[in-house]
Amino acid sequence: MLLHPKNALVLTSLKDDTKKWYASSLARQSGLSYVYVTELLSIFEKDGIIGVKKEGKVRRVSLTEKGQKLVVAIEELNGRLAALAPPEQPKPAPAAREETPEGKPADAKA
Predict the structure, then answer these.
(1) Quick count: other Cβ atoms within 10 Å of Cβ 51?
(2) What is the pTM of this model?
(3) What is the phi-psi region of residue 82: left when phi exceeds 0, alpha when psi lies from -120 to 50, beta otherwise?
């Protein structure tokens, strides 16, 4: 579950402690639904990865010490995996289409 790129993005976003993070802002940041993010945060909270502090009607989310260590490990793993990935091959150019003497593609219907 943690290795799914968007789930990991939720956690790695929390590393930026200059910003106040809420479930809604994490959902926007990660491209996940608000409902999914709140369920994910509930799991992370039960596992001691995040802490939740109630501020009025909203709940502010932050990494615990355990969560900070986990984010570092995720980033290291992602870096290692990226280093192992083969370099992207250039895509071949599309084949030239044959044209009829009238300038229409040969495979076009009359």
Answers:
(1) 15
(2) 0.70
(3) alpha
Quote the distance between the C-alpha of residue 10 and its chain's center: 7
* CB environment 53-63: b (16+ within 10 A), e (fewer): eeeeeeeebeb
Task: Outline where the chain has alpha helix (H).
Answer: 5-14, 23-30, 34-46, 65-84
Q: Which domains does the chain have, with CATH numbers?
A: 5-78 (1.10.10.10)
What are the pLDDT digits (tens) for 11-44? Answer: 999 998 889 999 999 999 999 999 999 999 999 9
Q: Of 17, 10, 76, 4, whose CA–CA distance to 45 is shortest?
A: 10
Query: How far apart are the C-alpha atoms of 28 and 95, rounded to whole Å?
Result: 41
The rounded Cα 5 to chain-centroid distance in angstroms is 4
DSSP for 17-47, please give it.
TTS-EEHHHHHHHHT--HHHHHHHHHHHHHT
Distance separating alpha carbons of residues 58 and 81, to the nearest angstrom: 37
